[in-house]
Amino acid sequence: MATPIIEFKHVEKYYGTYHALRDINLTIDSGQVVSIIGPSGSGKSTLIRTINGLEPINSGKLIVNGFDLADKKTDLNKIRKDVGMVFQHFNLYDNHTVLENITLAPKIVLKRPDKENKERAMDLLKRVGLENRANMYPAQLSGGQKQRVAIARSLAMDPKVILFDEPTSALDPEMIQDVLDVMRYVADQGITMVVVTHEMGFAREVGDRLIFFDQGQVLEDEKPEEFFDHPQSERARQFLSKVITEKLGG
Predict the structure, then answer these.
(1) pTM surpassing 0.85?
(2) Mean of the pLDDT values across residues 91-112?
(3) What angle do CA 206, 207, 209 make, to 5 degrees?
């Protein structure tokens, strides 16, 4: 039986008078890989940033791993311990080596012993194909390498959920595939993933669900093949035709 790990119940989010999220009702089960697509400015990034409390909600309920984010007594650090996030622009510590970037949080938050921490970090670097970069600094890495380090850093915390906020949009095209391959590896580990992405191939092939978002609302929530083959809304059909045209260079 599926176990919900993220539940949105009538969630609303405003920035001043701007209505960013409108009556969001979503349940994401443990182990699901959910891709969120939609036009720029539709609220996709706002949606996932509410899941670990980076953006507070204005009303409704948001339950993450048993914690109610609308409750002021909720300790957001406890949530973030189990909910990792991979950002568009990596957010690595420039003054720390690759290895230090990965071992820092587990040492401080999880109190993981140094020997075990280093072994775990090196294993993860091997998984993402960067074990020979352990003693380099972020400035010495390409964008794709930085993003793979950022994913390894998230995995080092043994999270129940990883949020990805457009993880490939800042990368050169030839670097994207390496990052997507690592994300496929994460999906195979059974970790719950919520991925805001422009990569339609990933959304179609890897995700269990696809959510189409526009103007702060969930317009469609389908299995990926259903969405791509039979979009229900006119807005989704317009979006897909534009995306396909751009991919073909039109």
Answers:
(1) yes
(2) 95
(3) 160
